[in-house]
Amino acid sequence: MKRPVTAARRYAEAAFQIATRDGTTTEWQERLDRLAELLRDERVDRLAGNPALPQEERERLLREALGWPADDPAFNLVRLLVRRGRIRLAPGIAGEFRRLVQRSSGIVEATVTAATELSSAEQAAIRARLEAMTGQRVELGVTVDPSLIGGVAVRIGDRMIDASVRGRLERLRGRLLSGAA
């Protein structure tokens, strides 16, 4: 998973503190996801990020598109992002907010890349092994990359576990080239 830019992370942390204080993390997550989804529309993104359009007009357009009341705490974040010219950070903020919610709930995200499709039993076994390693509940994402040849590569946060055939061959090649047997 790609790490968000520092600014998006800071906005998400501030929103998370407010949501935690108010007991509204679920509502905030829904709102941030809705905003990120709205900004995926190219036309909306162009309008929301257009500095030639008056700031009040951009805020009004977003509020109407989102259907949120003007005094909604999440809309205060939208207003701040528009005023600072950072509305395009919204998808990153939503993703980082989700990570913070998961971390506070003892959930860690892991991405497994396999050479072929994994059966549900294989996914369950990998999830169980990762949960035993981390001591946390694991939310597993699976991708397929035939170039791995066989095996899997797992990314948990900043940690990478490469148990693929390609990875093993590359490590063997490195040892052979360095003269270590």
The CATH class of the largest domain: Mainly Alpha
The share of residues in helices is 55-70%
- The proportion of residues in beta strands is 15-25%
Number of DSSP helical runs = 8
The neighbouring-strand order within the major sheet is 2-1-3-4
The SSE string, one letter per element, is HHHHHHEHEEEH
**Through-space gap between termini:** 34 Å
| CATH architecture assignment of the largest domain | Orthogonal Bundle
Which class do the helix and strand fractions yield? alpha+beta
What is the CATH T-level topology of the largest domain? Peroxidase, domain 1
Total DSSP E strands: 4
Largest sheet: 4 strands, mixed
Rg from Cα? 21 Å
Shape: elongated
What is the total number of structural domains?
Answer: 2
Mean pLDDT: 90
Keywords:
Peroxidase, domain 1, alpha+beta, 15% strand, 181 residues, 8 helices
In short:
The protein has 181 residues and is α+β, with helices and mostly antiparallel strands. 59% of the residues lie in helices and 15% in strands.
Can you give a write-up of this model?
This protein has 2 domains: 6-102, N-terminal domain of the delta subunit of the F1F0-ATP synthase (Peroxidase, domain 1); 107-178, no CATH class. 59% of the residues lie in helices and 15% in strands. It has 8 helices and 4 strands. A 4-stranded mixed beta sheet has the order 2-1-3-4, sandwiched between helices. Strand 1 (107-114), helix 7 (120-134) and strand 2 form a beta-alpha-beta unit.
Strand and helix map with partners:
Elements: H1 6-22, H2 25-39, H3 42-48, H4 55-66, H5 73-83, H6 90-104, E1 107-114, H7 120-134, E2 137-144, E3 151-156, E4 159-164, H8 165-178
Helix pairs in contact: 1-2, 1-6, 2-6, 4-5
